[in-house]
Amino acid sequence: MCHDAPDPSRPQRAAVVYNPIKVDIDRLRDAVAAAESAAGWAKSLWLETSEADPGIGQARQALAERVDVVIAAGGDGTVRAVAQGLQNSGVALSLLPSGTGNLLARNLGLDVNASRMEASVELAFTGVDSAIDVGVIEIDRPDGSSETHSFVVMAGLGLDAKMIANTNPELKKKVGWLAYVDAIGRSLVDKQVLRLRYRLDGGEERFTRVHTILIGNCGSLPGNILLLPDAEIDDGLFDIVTLRPEGVGGWARVWVGIVWENGVLRRSTFGRKLLDLRQRPVRALRYLRGRRIEGRLDRPEEFELDGDECGVITAFRAHVDPAALLVRMPRE
């Protein structure tokens, strides 16, 4: 779906797709009214999400109304749904961080401080557009049905998805991302491993046993955790990591690899030189890269997209849709 070139005789117009549970709607309306007025834009279109439609239909309605930018005001689920609705449309997504994770905004280097809402809103009316990749994944359910979803950050199977499914929603409201620490503790009791047959970029089929597999479009998580250190959001590639630690020592080694090596050492020239001198990689962490990956599991497993639990699946086929989404970014 292509967006028509702007009509110079028609004032530009934004749409706001908002999750009423996640945003302070009165403050948001005031901020949008001030920003649209200052930019000389028409009054914005307001579209509320629902449990039945978390944003895909609203984004498509905004496209039908020929808006010039769509502001996603909600958590990671709202962002993912609006992104799917805008995919390959030529209309930009503008982010208003409102949830716990704000995963896409973090990976784009945007301000995720909800107290600075007005500045995030202003960006929608004054910023410039940049193209990023979108992940597309087709999943098979245990009942034989199939679904296709888009994601902007990462898809996960196994322990990662169990962790999200185990997160206490009340605790998450009170302490935010720290609630996942509680969930990790409960998920680590699960000693089961994934048995996965997979094929990368049409190559030979391989078999692996892992606790978790993550298919990443980008690689940063809250808490300064750089899970996929080489992932770039606009390189047309997935960065994939499998985790297969053994025992408490194995989990400690994974934690050192992700938090210390990826999160600290890789961020400096000196740190990267130290890593280059190290002889052995972390055996429990394996990194892959490709444009397409398909996999089949020996039993139904928990699955997540961009930090939202998505039930259980038995197989998946994922590919990168390069430069498929425009996002509104600050001017240099």
UniProtKB/TrEMBL annotation:
Residues 9-141 form the DAGKc domain. One of its GO terms (molecular function) is kinase activity. Coiled coil: none annotated. Its cofactor is Mg(2+). Keywords: ATP-binding, Kinase, Lipid biosynthesis, Lipid metabolism, Nucleotide-binding, Phospholipid biosynthesis, Phospholipid metabolism, Transferase. Belongs to the diacylglycerol/lipid kinase family. This is Sphingosine kinase. It comes from Homoserinibacter gongjuensis. The lineage of its organism: Bacteria, Bacillati, Actinomycetota, Actinomycetes, Micrococcales.
